[in-house]
Amino acid sequence: MKENWLIFVRPARSGRAAARLVDYSAVCADFLVLSRKGCSMSPNRTPLWVELLAEFLGTFVLILFGAGVVAMVVLFPTGAPGETVHGGYTNITLGWGLAVTMGIYVAGKISGAHLNPAVTLALAVFRDFPWRKVLPYSLAQTTGAFLAAALVFRNYLPAFHQVDPHLEKTAGIFTTFPAFPSLPQAGFLDQVIGTALLLLMIFAITDEYNLPPGANLAPLLIGLVVVAIGMSFGALHGYAINPARDFGPRLFTVLAGFRHNGLTDGSQVWWVPIVAPLVGGVLGAGLYDLGIRRFLRRQA
What we know:
The protein is mainly alpha-helical. 59% of the residues lie in helices and 5% in strands. The chain has helices spanning 24-30, 48-75, 88-111, 117-126, 134-155, 157-163, 184-205, 218-233, 243-256, 272-299; strands at 5-11, 17-23. Strands 1-2 form a two-stranded antiparallel sheet. The two termini are 24 Å apart.
């Protein structure tokens, strides 16, 4: 409809305004992750606490679905030889991808639905997201992940009592661990690659200069990116690709009394899924801007 069209003005890196004719409804639907000012023609006046609440709730939903699907696979074996419990690893990758999609739909219009400190950092570096919001966003995301892990644990408490009464072997439902503990560099590289792919694809999917998807499909496609990463780079360190998704639930496992939690058990594996995704996210976002976006902007 004609009333859906407007001139969308976005500051260019050179300081000049870049005006593009775009469909207003498409902007609202497609640029959930990378939008700093939402879809309003007027400057964004959403209070910071509202944005933080959106990040909290979006990450909360993400972890509820994500940790929930892992709990379904781990806690309900029948004991049959060679069984695949509730879809096994395939269900885990699909569940986490859908979890990301649902979290973005929850928070997208208010905060941009970063749901991930690696995304927030990359947006601050390459898309002028305010640096003063990076730490508050990250804390809101981590808090949402922590409380979602607590709720999943409470929901499945009878199953935990049956399968792992001493909480010795099921912390992996909530957080990630290396396949090769003696080779932390292997997990680090894996997390760098996975998160680089995540941010490269997020920037590609949501770039207004590229070919963004229509009909509010960006969250679904970003969820499919997470599915692909899990299927391709999921074994070496559990594809956290998100410091909040890993550290918030890991803190919960410590407080809940899980013995092998990666933080207080002496293994010191907790830092890999924090540092590596932050590095990988910046690398992936930078690779997209350097290799693709700068050429698209010349054609615009």
